[in-house]
Amino acid sequence: MSTQVTVIPGDGVGPECVAAARRIIDATEAKIDWDEQEAGETVFRRGVASGVPKDTIDSITRTRVVLKGPLGTPVGFGEKSANVTLRKLFETYANIRPVRELPGVSTRYSGSGVDLVVVRENVEDLYAGIEHMQTPGVAQCLKLISRKGSEKIARTAFEFARSEGRKSVTCATKSNIMKLTEGELKRTFEKVALEYPDIESRHVIIDNAAHQLVKRPEQFDVIVTTNMNGDILSDLTSALVGGLGFAPSANLGSGVAIFEAVHGSAPKYAGRDVINPTAVILSSVMMLKHLQFFDEAESIENALFATLQKGVLTGDVVGYDRGTSTSDFASAIIDNLGESVDGYTIRRGRPLAMPAPKPNPVTVVPETRRVVGVDVFVESGLMPDALGPQLEARVSDFSLRLKMISNRGTKVYPDGNTNIDVVDHYRCRFVQRDDGDVSRSLVRELLERIEGSVDWVHLELLQEFDGDAAYTKAQGED
Ligand code: NAP
Q: Is 71's C-beta closer than 6 angstroms to any atom of ligand 1?
């Protein structure tokens, strides 16, 4: 019986790369039944705002497995990237991005044995795409990191390490600055690590991770990180082994799996039969392993290595005036099926056990919780020394007092930093005068009191869970 796979050729260089991968897979006689569907630019231009038509969604819902070319995001069409839409529609929360030193592809790291995997959280963080202009001149993007999401991605990283017989997992975050959001992944990772005593675990700050990756990449095995960090870091890691032309990826959830190159549609090379299809070919190898077509996957990977070692290289490696064409490169791999390269063994691995979703949205239940104040974000053209007294006057006889005002995170009132080049977006922190809980009606009364003096644009409750502050202080706040 054949296995059905949804195939999306995509935009720009996508169709050429996907055609190469399909020809090679078909040459192995893997029993795959391709269901070709569309997404991306052509769909946006037809007026489908998401860039993903219903037929494509229906196909993926049925097959659960997708081989996809890159999708362009034309400026002025649709609200969101069709790639991000697909990842979110099917909750593919883990993006696995392996890179490995390749025979015949010379880089400044050749000989160091780079063989590492970035496990990138794929649906949360700044990529939740929740953005607002708070004032006409101040934009905001919400960085959302959940315990549930962090647990799933940390567990995926350890499960992936186990499935491939890898030895260590490094968690890379910016928890030193973003203690609550990036810190959530760090803390959760450290807890989950206790369940995997067979795998070495450590945490590094993301900027040092970038530095160490360039300096001594061979020290890394599996790296787990948040969405934005992972996006940037995985382009860096692709450059360690020859560039984006060699970087595959898998978007995995507990149901659907989408396999695609890390790179985009590279429009300037579209239709020229010159692009390197290796990233999509290696993504299709990951797909075959996922489908447990281990022999076919191994055979393609070996043939690819043999092809590269023989010096059959595309223009990105040897120059576009001399490179092998995309279609000839695929033909060479087909000719080399059955060959292998000494010293390049294939990780057969075993199927990856993805953490299952938990239908309950509540993952953390504190024993105690309390609202101790509220941050009211206001739009104001006043300077801090004028704004502060005005607000204080509004609450002088009220149970909440103005504790401080900050501007882009730094305290500017009272006794604030006077070097700040302030913008018209202030955070005004109001706290209880006594130890009581701040009720929602008290917040409403506060807003009524300050309206007329300033325009509030956003608010955040200051909460304590189990006695711990669930908010951070401003720079310079006591
Ligand atoms: P890109 O398409 O990844 O191309 C950037 C550069 O990377 C290319 O100019 C080329 O470098 C190199 N490159 C990309 N693919 C290559 C390959 N197969 N072989 C060799 N070199 C390759 O990034 P972009 O130009 O920023 O984005 C173009 C479009 O793709 C945008 O609409 C973007 O939204 C979309 N995109 C889609 C995905 C996806 O579908 N998952 C991912 C990223 C971007 P040189 O110029 O040095 O030759």
A: yes
